[in-house]
Design brief:
Layout (H helix, E strand, L loop, with lengths): L1 E4 L5 H7 L4 E4 L7 E2 L7 H14 L6 H15 L4 E7 L2 H17 L4 E7 L16 H9 L2 E2 L2 H14 L21 H9 L11 H9 L8 H11 L7 H10 L4 E4 L3 E4 L9 H4 L6 E3 L1 E2 L12
Parallel strand pairs: 1-2, 1-4, 3-9, 4-5
Antiparallel strand pairs: 5-6, 7-8, 9-10
Amino acid sequence: MLHILNGDAVVPIFRKSAIPGDLAIWRELHCQGPTTYSIGMQDFRTIREKFLEEYLDLPYGFYGDNTNSQLNKIRTSLSDEVTLWFEYDLFCQINMMVAINFLIQIRPSVTIFLINVGQTYGNPQWYTLGQLNAQEWRDNYRTKKLLDKSAINFMQSAWNIYCSADHRAFESIMHECPSVFKYFPLTIENHYRRFPSSLDNLTDIQRYIFENLTERSYRSERDVLRGLIQDFHFYGYGDLQYKAILRSLSHFIEFEPDQGYRLKRKFTGKIENGEVSKLPEMIYGGQSNKEHFLEDFITL
């Protein structure tokens, strides 16, 4: 059995669980930046490497040393069974979709099992793999779900849409979403919320940032990042991503390393048309957030 884990942080507890099998780590964030349908090919690697270097300010060679090395481990694995370990948030769910498609593209006959954590029946609290102890990892492993042909086909369709230039097409398949992907419908709704509202030209994260900063005083970087991670836990973004989002708003926000962030001018509740061009563009797969408003996807 090959296990694909959602991050390096859970490797120690996975090893402590003594679950048999080899492991690889999914070191990517496909929920941001451009993608192509054929995963792991040179053109895919080129656009991902360029995005990660430019957007997250990662050093040259990071992709090859950290991401591609793990993809090669998956590619060369002799196991014909793979278990995917992912969480409920958008970051994990998009990576899960890519991992499934990568496996099918390189080895169509592979048997894939899925473990998704987030909520349990009767408990409204959200939880992550990192919060589970070794016994709970073993318990989850015993209840892993086999991805049948219909589940695989659904994720192939979803990935095709994600790589396309119009994500409204998700609406045509979401009623067919297999129950094994219980968090994926919520992921797509949260994905839509990454598009700006026509009411104020802001995404939900941008709006939160503007509403929680003032032009009068600084808020420490630690405080700002902690608030974003807690209040937008369903995105699953980390420090690097939120720092990149804050950098992309440099026309509106100033940053002092020893003081933190503050607005350059008072926020009046809306970004006026003359300033909209200063808001950053983000590509999600094949879709630009400059091409649609949130209201094109969701009726508020």
